[in-house]
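#onboarding

Welcome to the new folks! Below is a worked example of what a typical request in this channel looks like: someone posts a single protein sequence, and someone else replies with the predicted structure as tokens. Don't worry about understanding the tokens yet, we'll cover that in week two.

Example request:
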Amino acid sequence: MSAAAEEYFLASTDISISGLPKISLHDHLDGGPRAETIIELADAIGLELPAAGETALADWFENSADSGSLVSYLKTFDVTTAVMQTREGLSRVAREFVQDLALDGVIYGEVRWAPEQHLGTGLSLDEVVDAVQEGIEAGIDDARAGGYGPAGQIIRVGQLVTAMRHADRGLEIAELAVRHRERGVVGFDIAGAELGFPAGNHRAAFDYLAQNFFPVTVHAGEADGLESIRGALFDGRALRLGHGVRLAEDITIERQDDENTYVTLGRLSQWVKDREIALELAPSSNLQTGAISAWGTDLSEHPFDLLYQLGFKVTVNTDNRLMSNTSISRELALLADAFEYDLSDLEVFQQNAAAATFLPLEDREELAEIISEGFEDA
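Example response:
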């Protein structure tokens, strides 16, 4: 059973986390195909896979991604992107992606992906974006028709068009994103190998996006530290930080006692906190890639709770559902177990995410109301 289809409960209660309304901000399209779909699409194009059978292939992705290195982690995407080179493949993966979000109780999701990595069969950048949007809309229709998620649930999904930070197509991809802003694209991102590829390399793209009042999130503070986060904010004008977990490096713990931890924030972390810049944290992924190695190798050592207790706008995300064999409900369950969170804490995380979506203010307020009502009824 996939993590999306499995039901998760808040520890020592009968409250179904899976049934709660949730927001997904950081979720990669090529990190979420179903193993069975990869097998079928690979067979159609004659692609040899690293493992035979649905269960074995899913295990291969999870075990290979659990490498302690972002670079090694990213190699697993060679397989998923290979089966996402046709209009049919892209649309199917996007459709099922939305179905799985709905199964997990997500009411709004932003799915990020890099169009430049899906041109292998001759499709244009505009054509691949249209193909993904076609799949998203079909998945939304499926959810509304029933069978995916809580009865009567309505899900919305927007695309975050992503440029690969090690390539030189940033401006071209930014123009693509803006071109499709009325056809499903809600924001822009840069992703891929972080260390050695600063956001400043794409300054022209970020200038263009700012001139067009187009929202940006930037992967930063995952495989690189504070300078990468500074670049995301200064060069990228990022409204959110993709991961951003290593912002905790700018927090000095002065002393601790049985009840309190006394800290000093650096100027960067203070800025992020004061401006309420959302952190798109992905606990399981952060463990797999070694992003939290400075703090430990167990979820209980993740600086998530430190950031939360200090008032940062933390959000909970999957990053790549296939590679981490996870869902937002599972991530919330893991965090609740690790830090003894209750229902009110989980609601804070969802309200933080709703406020950070790249939607108009009125739509964000509507999401906030849906979340409040759903948690009240839990």
